[in-house]
Amino acid sequence: MTDPAPARRLFIKTYGCQMNVYDSERMADLLRPLGYAMAEGPEDADLVVLNTCHIREKATEKVYSELGYIKQMKLDRQARGKSMTIAVAGCVAQAEGKEIMHRQPAVDLVIGPQAYHQLPELIARTHRAKGERLAADFAAEAKFDRLGPERKADGVTAFLTVQEGCDKFCTFCVVPYTRGAEFSRPAEAILAEARDLAAQGVREVTLLGQNVNAYGGEGGLAALVRQLAQVEGLDRIRYTTSHPADMDLALIAAHGEVEALMPYLHLPVQAGSDRVLKAMNRAHTAESYLRLVERIRKARPDMALAGDFIVGFPGERESDFEATLQLVVEIGYASAFSFKYSRRPGTPAAALPGQLAEEVKDERLARLNALLDDQQKAFNASQVGATLPVLFERAGRHPGQLSGRSPYLQAVHVAGPDHLIGQIVPVRIEGAAKMSLAGALALEFA
Fold it and tell me: Which of 18, 85, 96, 434 would you label with 52, given CA atoms 20 to 30 Å apart?
């Protein structure tokens, strides 16, 4: 009798957005039948995958820096008679595949975001020392057709990709070039995956897409949400990231009518100046965004808003930045993500005149963050004294502590027994910090 093949170890490092988190999970699912179990770190792995993000230049350079460290680990393993395969996946792979191979020859595979369903085959080719090393030009349809609905749930919450790509072509963004045109998965496939996740104990799904509310299935995202709300065991639905231009009346109505759809909406605006928004090709104005938020809050009065902001876009004047601050004051955000403009080669904005000095961008970002931080603290403080339904996801950092999420995506920490993990429990909020809430279980659960 022959000895069984030794177990293989896999390490995946994920950069960037939730879409990449989902893709990394599916890569692990694809490789599990090949005998790959997860490693704690790259030094113990037979296969290392860097699932990359191309949104900002510094993020790209971090990938090359990381590859330098991993190359040395590969050499160390080779010196001990062991092998390591290095793969670069994601949007940097799509945009800079040949450059990656040129700059870091230790990389064995480059796999674009639409090609990772080919990963088992490509690894087999690599081990046979033949075949293509680059795989960056596959259609999204092929990827999702190959994946199938089965995946291993990791906890009581999960990401679920429903749409990929973007047709908006914001002038600062590389997504249309790295993820391609908008493609929506069939509702039947999404529902099958959701049912499988719910059967494994998942209580909350976050629907993902580069432009998720452009979902093109029959009835749009609103109809999909209503169908998902009927999946037994699935109690909470979220989605990200949205574009204001695709926030239609049906989806707004769903927020007021579908109990499972959480009252937290990530709705990036990017700037409060119409002049800057036009230069960004955002297809909305500050006024239209404000009116949209009014309609959303009319449908769901307790809606918490999250936003994205870019400061220091080429040509941004002080008056433009002040308009952004004014919009933030008028909206009142529960949380937000804000960034300095980062020049991305190949995007229209990279060639625009009026590129701002880093010190100007730094100063404006600091002012914006101070305002956004104050708003987030105020929103969290407003929950003190309220009783919120909290989905407990895991044990907390301290003995006897549980950690979960409120309907508004706030982290909530409570003293309680482990058997409540996976349950939605009423919690009285007793304290608030910038990033989390603290509370006590309702009496019947204490």
Answer: 434
Angle at 337 between CA 334 and CA 343, to 5 degrees: 160
Tokens 């407003």 correspond to 382
Cα 14 to Cα 19: distance, rounded to the nearest angstrom: 10
Query: How is the chain split into domains, by residue range?
Result: 8-141, 143-381, 387-441
Q: Are 314 and 349 in contact (CB under 8 A)?
A: yes
DSSP string, 290-306: HHHHHHHHHHSTTPEEE
3-class DSSP state for residue 161? strand
CB 235 within 8 Å of CB 201: no
> Terminus-to-terminus CA distance in the chain, angstroms?
56
Enumerate residues 6+ apart whose C-beta is below 8 A from 263. 255, 300, 302, 303, 304, 407, 408
Cα 31–chain centre separation: 22
Is 11:41 a contact under the CB 8 Å cutoff? yes
Domain range 8-141, its CATH number among 3.20.20.70, 3.40.47.10, 3.40.50.12160, 3.40.50.2000: 3.40.50.12160
pLDDT in tens, 298-337: 999 999 999 999 999 999 999 999 999 999 999 999 999 9
pTM strictly above 0.85: no
Segments of 210-274 assigned E as strands:
236-240, 264-266
CB 325 within 8 Å of CB 371: yes
Q: Report the alpha-carbon distance of residue 416 to residue 409 in Å, rounded.
A: 20
Task: Tell whether omega for the bond before 241 is within 30 degrees of 0, i.e. cis.
Answer: yes
pLDDT, tens digit (0-9, with 9 covering 90-100), for 365-406: 999 999 999 999 999 999 999 999 999 999 988 999 999 999
CATH class of 387-441: mainly beta
Q: Which amino acid is located at 190 in the chain?
A: I
